[in-house]
Amino acid sequence: MFAPCINKVNNMKFLNRLVLCFFAVVMSASVHADDQKIRETLAKVIPDLPVKSIEKSELEGVYQVNTEAGETLFFSQDGRFFITGDLYSLENNKIQNLSEIKREQQRVAKIDAIPGEQKIVFPAQGETKGKIAVFTDIDCGYCRKLHKEVPALNKMGVEVSYLAYPRAGVNSESYKKYVSAFCAEDKLLAMTKAKNGQEIEPKVCANHVTEQYNLGREIGISGTPAIILDNGTLIPGYVSADKIAKSLGIM
């Protein structure tokens, strides 16, 4: 168990390293045991709950359970009690939503991991001063209203990346329209036509519409448009170009 920590130097540094290693192993075993207690409880009581991960929270003795659907539960160490909701801290006379901070970090990481060619991107004109990702539905009225703001956003130096979130689900008419726009030779023109209610040529190609829809559900998207700023902040619903630019700090 301790083999990786041991070298053959017989001195105080070696003894210190051995002690530190011992506590690391003990702590790791303790965390694993608590993890197992919580998993066993969930398996018995809520067997259908899709657990993604279990980790220590910032609150001593409390573990955070993250589900595949993007929900968060906080469990006692013995797995007997849990609460739902966000975890807040009160430090330096400030209230901070620690749960939302984590969600913002996760949104940034997941969206940054999506290659540019899998998005429909309306680039900034000139210097890129800010970026937003928008989970959108082709037929959503407020999504269409937001799309009319895209030229103004681009002029202000804001790059707009569309990600698919057909609210009616996979294989719905809105889903098929998004696929057709993505597969078009000119994606931006096709998207603008579709957003304006015009017919576009039905097309099918390799795409990531289903993956993006599932990602949206995973990170808590429930409606469209859902605007995510480059710092991970989620703005649900329509917002004007000027307000978006202010939120990005470029006005």
Report on the structure:
It is built from 8 helices and 11 strands. It has 251 residues and is an alpha+beta fold. It has 2 domains: 3-97, Nuclear Transport Factor 2, Chain: A (Roll), CATH 3.10.450; 109-248, Glutaredoxin (3-Layer(aba) Sandwich), CATH 3.40.30.10. The chain has a 5-stranded mixed beta sheet, sandwiched between helices. A hairpin with a 4-residue loop joins strand 10 (226-229) and strand 11 (234-236). The radius of gyration is 24 Å and the shape is globular.
Overall mean confidence score, pLDDT: 86
The CATH class label of the largest domain is Alpha Beta
Round the Cα radius of gyration to an integer and report it: 24 Å
Low-confidence stretches: 1-10, 12-31
Layout: helices, strands, pairs:
Blueprint: H1 12-45, E1 51-56, E2 62-67, E3 72-76, E4 82-84, E5 88-91, E6 94-97, H2 98-112, E7 120-122, E8 130-136, H3 141-147, H4 150-155, E9 158-164, H5 173-183, H6 187-195, H7 209-218, E10 226-229, E11 234-236, H8 241-248
Parallel strand pairs: 8-9
Antiparallel strand pairs: 1-2, 2-3, 3-4, 5-6, 7-9, 8-10, 10-11
Helix pairs in contact: 5-6
Summarize the structure.
It is built from 8 helices and 11 strands. The protein has helices spanning 12-45, 98-112, 141-147, 150-155, 173-183, 187-195, 209-218, 241-248, and strands at 51-56, 62-67, 72-76, 82-84, 88-91, 94-97, 120-122, 130-136, 158-164, 226-229, 234-236. Strands 7-9-8-10-11 form a 5-stranded mixed β-sheet, with helices on both faces. A 4-stranded antiparallel β-sheet has the order 1-2-3-4, with helices on one face.
